[in-house]
Design brief:
2 domains, Arc Repressor Mutant, subunit A, 222 residues, phosphoprotein, Tscrpt_reg_LuxR_C, 11 helices, 6 strands, transcription regulation, Rossmann fold, WalR-like
Length: 222
């Protein structure tokens, strides 16, 4: 069972999202919070598998909470999925730069939101597919999120891992990558598990950003 914390300053949104997730047989909302400080306190107390955070909350915004839960020095690290009504603003970029594992708009399909929680809990990360290139382009332009290592992929990864990184940068899922490379999905997952530590990142989303920042993938490129 995947344990989830939901934080949003709007009661209706908080209740709706909680009901949506609780309706899934493998997801359980263990707590809800109406502001950032409450979210941080509950997260540290309950150690959920995923924290679903709104960005704009009173007292302590989602960026500060994200940094506290999964940024440098966080222990334990609690993966964060950002849910917001704003598709492109400084708050969203700030949350990704602070270490968020995923980002979706609140008007996403309910099935997509539930699946995003599962992906983040599994360490895969997720990003709204319609916004991937725009968000990555902005992050790359700012260049504030720097990987642990400054090496290029050719110096760090095997040829197969390099291929998978390029396909990740195109927004492909594990299943799509497996089909493109004619391998099993389990093989893709094994390569990803070995690749992420080499790049000094925690999720596939951060790996994508790393690929663009280091010139392995290019915005608008194949």
């Amino acid at each position: 069972m995947t344990r989830v914390l939901v934080a949003d300053d709007q009661a209706l949104v908080r209740a709706g999202l909680s009901a949506l997730l609780d309706a899934e047989p493998d997801l359980e909302v263990v707590a809800t919070a109406a502001d950032g400080l409450e979210a941080l306190t509950l997260a540290r107390e309950l150690a959920p598998d995923v924290a679903c955070l709104d960005i704009r909350m009173p007292g302590m915004d989602g960026i500060e909470v994200t940094r506290a839960l999964c940024g440098p020095g966080a222990d334990p690290v609690i993966p964060v999925l950002v849910l917001t009504t704003f598709d492109l603003d400084d708050y969203v970029f700030g949350a990704l730069e602070a270490g968020a594992s995923g980002f979706l708009l609140k008007d996403a399909d309910p099935t997509a939101i539930a699946e995003a929680v599962r992906q983040v809990a599994a360490g895969h990360g997720t990003l709204d597919s319609t916004l991937t290139r725009r968000i990555v382009a902005e992050l790359v332009g700012r260049r504030r999120l720097q990987p642990v290592t400054a090496g290029r992929a050719s110096d760090l990864l095997t040829p197969r891992e390099h291929d998978i990184l390029l396909l990740l940068a195109q927004g492909m899922s594990n299943e799509e990558i497996a089909a493109a490379l004619v391998v099993e999905v389990s093989t893709v997952k094994s390569h990803l598990a070995r690749m992420l530590p080499k790049l000094g990142v925690r999720s596939r989303l951060q790996a994508v950003v790393w690929a663009y920042q280091n010139g392995i993938a290019t915005v608008g490129g194949a």
